[in-house]
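Regression report. Comparing outputs from two consecutive submissions.

Submission 1:
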Amino acid sequence: MATYNTIGSAYARTRRPDPRIAARIRTALGDAVDVVDVGAGTGSYEPPGTVLAVEPSRVMIDQRRPGSAPAVRAVAERLPLRDGAADAAMAVLTVHHWTDPAAGIAELRRVARRRVVVLTWDQRVFRERWWLVRDYLPEAAAFDDGRAVDVDHLADLLGGARCEPVPVPHDCTDGFAAAYWRRPYAYLDPQVRAGISLLAQTGEAVIAPGLARLADDLETGRWHARHGGLLALKEADFGYRLLVADL
């Protein structure tokens, strides 16, 4: 909670839901009539049937849109809900912030009657394919190594879940970490970085040298010489994964 009370103020501006990713999440939720969104943040991907959002940060709750589902301040590890409270429970890019992922996943399974949907990422793929952390910000990659939750472990905690790749569109409107993979200049914008917890939590002083190298490579054309092939792609896989578990 303290983290997002500090770094979450930019989320309503930089973390707008991407419709293609939203469609993937809604398809994964299937015919669920009512949904609980855990670690909901500003509520970017909540479907119309969301009955409750659970979010520990007041800063994030205050940025929720008018008319969105009611929100309660609580943590994933202790959901203030009865067993089987909703058809489905969802958690979008939040598990890595939980203090006890196993307890949080158990709570998702407890409150969902039929299905649990979790959007996360595979750190191994993320490290290998995302040029920013691989080539410029290894310090940020090291920070993620300490908080990323293994996808296979999450699938096991969910009691067995199918794992679906979620490619990132080249013009993704949700400014999460790898969203700007084809727009490298964006990472030089402090406001963009403020909406990416990986960069904000690693710290400006730590990532400043790598960003300086990026700026220089963009100015001299070295970035385009090395990564120009990306500019022809409409989407790319950087390790984001959708886990879908039927209960």
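Submission 2:
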Amino acid sequence: MKNTIIGKKAVIGKNVHIGNFTTIDDDVIIGDNTWIGNNVSILNGARIGENCQIHSGAVLAGVPQDLKYNGEYTLLEIGNNTIIREFVTINKGTSLKGKTIIGEKNLIMSNAHIGHDCAIGNNCIIGFSVGMAGEVIVGDWVNISGLTAIHQFSIIGEHSMISGLSRVVKDIPPYITVGREPLSYVGLNLVGLKRRDFSLEKINELQDIYRVLFQEKRNTTFALQFIENSFEKTLERDKIIDFVKSSKRGIIKGFNH
């Protein structure tokens, strides 16, 4: 490890590889079997799980890019088996939530930025040069394609997919693919759902629900009432209803709006 600086109080697990010219501050915890490349900066407040990969040029737990941040003690938590590629930047939290959270088994591709107080679920793919503002919430199994920009406070539902070069300014319900400009419902995330072993019956149910919500030109309130009254109560149905009802920014529209 040439010209590598490791804080005396840093807690480094077993079998951790640390590359050349990497800096690890005192208030850092790194789990077993994690691989860290060259020229990486892991700053105070970082908590990194086991079996992670952190590639060259990444900066983790940087100071939030938020003028309200006043030096308060906050964290960045990264779960096990997460891969962080070259030049990714992830800021730690602010006093609002106290931490930025990255779940387990995520792939964050090169040049992506994740802002303060974001919460990313598990098994997500964050594409090349995705820009994610602060306080964004991303569910499990989400795929965000490259060069997508995501507005602060946005919520992205589980099992959804966002096409490349997208501009996300509204919430995205679960299980769907979104694209076009302005960003709109394209259909279900069929590839992702099939890979996750969703049954054909379940996929048909989701298609019918979203047809009511996005393609039949109903007012959202009336569409939700129709879905509640006309579809059997299931876990997925209720997740969709609860997501739409709780959205503060409003959800994206159907492509025919």
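Expected: both submissions complete independently.
Actual: both completed, but the second showed a warning that disappeared on reload.
Relevant detail on submission 2: The domain at 5-153 is CATH 2.160.10.10 (UDP N-Acetylglucosamine Acyltransferase; domain 1).
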